[in-house]
Amino acid sequence: MAQITLKNLAHSYLPNPSQEDDWALKEIDHVWRDGEAYALLGPSGCGKSTLLNIISGLLIPSQGSILFNGNDVTEAPTAQRNIAQVFQFPVVYDTMTVRENLAFPLKNRGLDAGIIKERVERIGDMIGMTDQLDRKARGLAADAKQKISLGRGMVREDVNALLFDEPLTVIDPHMKWQLRTQLKELHRQFGHTMIYVTHDQTEALTFADRVVVMHDGRVVQIGTPDELFERPEHTFVGYFIGSPGMNFLECSVEGETATVDGNRIALGSDYGRPSGRIQLGVRPEHVKLSKGEGLPATIDRVEDVGRHRIVRARVLGAPLNIIAGEGEAIATDGQTVVFEPGRVNIYSDDWRVEPHGSSVGRRAA
Q1: How much of the chain, in percent, has pLDDT values that exceed 90?
Q2: If you ran DSSP here, which 8-state letter would residue 171 be given?
Q3: N or C: which end of the chain has fewer CB atoms below 10 A?
Q4: Which intervals of the chain form a coiled coil (predicted)?
Q5: Is there a single domain that holds both residue 41 and residue 168?
Q6: What are the backbone dihedrals phi and psi of residue 22, each rounded to the nearest 5 degrees, phi first?
């Protein structure tokens, strides 16, 4: 296992980057703690795979350095970093059996035949391919081949880190859940440093100890699933995490009060007088329908999703989503909405404003 340190790291695919938009990966300083499971989460093109490939040695960064346990490996090839990487699409040896594919990394390191047999059979069971271990990989379906790739990545116990680049893309939904569960169990047993790239928030939040959210080549927050949900440090995190995502309303703020189009909202904390473009952010789970005081709301439609209903509304012309219980009465007119005190976040130019007296840092990255 390894602690991975990124120092002043940035990358551009252009030979002479001259402006911020030229950088595919904007500068990052961070320590990936030894033995933790991380998810790199963000939409396509945000820089996730670029960062992963720099860590693995497939890409040399334009600037900065990478250290494994304090040793500079910035220029070191992948083989010298002692990592295992699983890619989005399967990479297997078609002429080998499933067993031979899984055993290949262990044979290359000269392990005892008994150890190889035990380890291969254990991983074969983990990926649900025990009955296919002696079958040739040629002719297997894409999802079966990807399970082989996944198993080959997990078969070694001595790696510095396990890197996964959207490894479950071609796996059916039920098997995805099983493999995520097994990856977490593998992490609990052996304590590998794991980095898992995905654009799927469910995968990220169920797999990782800490999630690294990326947007437009930049790390905008690193935190636990609870921190990302309750205190998004950037409006993109609020929008991207949750279903539906966080609601945002333009407002002004003075002290413990936000004003939205002349309507005053108690915030429960003192925010002073933040400058810039000010927005109020609140999760749909923390918005309540009311018939009394509150912001006037117009109900557009109600979507029943089983355990709860999603109310699509408009407040002062802006869209607002509300999570309502199954038995909650929803009128079509005369509704107002109120926000749970202490569950509102304030943003200045897209970054979260920390209320006065709070001990939590402004940005988690």
Answers
A1: 61
A2: S
A3: C
A4: none
A5: yes
A6: -75, -10
Contacts of 206 (CB under 8 A, 6+ apart): 180, 184
Please count the structural domains in the chain: 2
Q: How far is CA 275 from the centre of its chain?
A: 30
Domain ends where: 230, 262, 297?
230
Q: Give every CB contact of residue 169 below 8 A, 6+ residues apart in sequence.
A: 88, 89, 146
Q: What is the pLDDT of residue 360?
A: 52
Residue 247: which of 232, 259, 261 has the closest Cα? 232
Tokens of 349: 């130019």
Q: What one-letter code names the amino acid at 244?
A: P
Asked if residue 185 is part of any domain, the answer here is: yes
Tokens for 67, please give them: 């250290």
Alpha carbons within 13 angstroms on the beta-carbon side of residue 152 total: 28
Longest dimension (CA), the chain: 75
* Radius of gyration in angstroms for the set of CA atoms belonging to the chain, rounded to a whole number: 24
Give the rounded distance of the alpha carbon of 291 from its chain centre.
Answer: 38
Let me know whether 347 and 312 are in one domain. yes
β-strand pairing of 287-290 with 309-315? unpaired
Nearest to 318 by CA among 279, 355, 268, 288: 279
| CATH number, domain with residue 335 | 2.40.50.140
In tens, the pLDDT along 82-103 reads 888 888 888 899 999 999 999 9
Which DSSP letter does residue 179 get? Answer: H
The residue with tokens 């002073």 is 272
The pTM of the full predicted model, rounded to 2 decimals, is 0.85
Tokens encoding 332: 């079509």
- Write out the residue range of the structural domain in which residue 102 sits: 4-14+22-230
What backbone phi and psi angles, to 5 degrees, belong to 313? -130, 175
DSSP 3-state of 147: helix
